[in-house]
Amino acid sequence: MNTGTVAAREAGNMVDLDSDPTKLIEIVEIGKALLMTRGSLTTFSIANDVAKYFAIIPAIFAVFYIAPGQTSGPLQALNIMHLATPQSAILSAIIFNALIIVALIPLSLRGVRYRAVGAGALLGRNLLVYGLGGLVAPFVGIKAIDMAITALGLA
């Protein structure tokens, strides 16, 4: 049997799984863990983006629709985080985005651990952890960064 090119023999060894059929179960678990990691990061990212829009959109449109002699317009109601200025809001969102990318690198490299539970329970847990976490983290992080930027007088 041991004939053919080296690459062909190596490919045969990968398919053969070292003559151990239990390794197929490990491969399936790794595939499920990769799929769960991708889904968790996507859920966190979408929720994170939705929350960041509450900081960026009011800052972008803050200067529109301001009547002469007034300091704020009707779109100020969208500023639910009460960020100091449009400049500090955008700077805070950019800094938070850079920090969250660095914070998510270990999760993406390590992955989400696969657990043999039902799909409904797993989805509920991941939505709670990554979805709710993705919504709450930007509000807290951007507001804290905005307060620091304002205190330091950077914007």
Structure description:
This protein has helices at 6-16, 23-60, 86-110, 119-152. The chain has one domain (34-152). 17% of the residues are buried. The mean pLDDT is 81. It is mostly helical and 155 residues long.
Mean pLDDT across residues: 81
Poorly predicted sequence stretches spanning 5 or more consecutive residues: none
Number of domains: 1
Main structural class: mainly alpha
The span between the termini is 72 Å
Overall morphology: elongated
Question: What are its keywords?
Answer:
single chain; 155 residues; mainly alpha; 4 helices; elongated
Describe the secondary-structure layout:
Elements: H1 6-16, H2 23-60, H3 86-110, H4 119-152
Helix pairs in contact: 2-3, 2-4, 3-4
Short structural description:
The protein is mainly alpha-helical and 155 residues long. It has 4 helices and no strands.
